[in-house]
Amino acid sequence: MARVFIRSKIHQATITQTDLRYEGSITLDPKLMQAADIEPYEQVHVLNLNNGNRLETYAIVGKSGSGVVCLNGAAARHAEAGDQVIVLTYESFVHLPPKGYAPTVVHVNAKNKITKVKKGG
């Protein structure tokens, strides 16, 4: 049986906008995606610190350097601009992860600019 562990997270990002009419997903600044090792169309979980909502969607690439964190489509109903969220990715291991394993944590400021990256093992 596989076990699922956190691979990376963007910690306390700020929702910059929502777009109910878009097809769906979360639009992220590619600088955030690269730092957190998130690929386009990869499944992510979004945890809203303001209202407790948790949702599952996929990431799409926004404008580089924009700091964009935008919930689209139905996901837009789960947050408002200004809400703080955690964006998580996961990894499965058949047994346990390698010794010393830890997730990558990307810390950002209020404008979603990277302030610190703690690389996992």
Distinctive features:
single chain; 121 residues; mainly beta; Barwin-like endoglucanases; 9-stranded mixed β-sheet; 47% strand; globular
Radius of gyration: 14 Å
Ends distance:
22 Å
Which regions have little confidence, pLDDT < 50, spanning 5+ residues?
Answer: none
Which structural class do the helices and strands define?
A: mainly beta
Order of helices and strands: EEEHEEEEEE
The residue fraction in helices comes out at under 10%
**Quaternary form:** single chain
The appropriate CATH architecture is: Beta Barrel
Counting DSSP E segments of at least 2 residues, the number of strands comes to 9
Put simply, the count of helices is 1
Number of structurally distinct domains: 1
Strand order of the largest sheet: 2-6-3-5-4-7-1-8-9
Query: In CATH terms, what is the fold-level topology?
Result: Barwin-like endoglucanases
Average of pLDDT = 95
Reading off the top of the CATH hierarchy, the class is best stated as Mainly Beta
Q: Note the main sheet.
A: 9 strands, mixed
- Strand fraction equals over 45%
Mass-distribution shape: globular
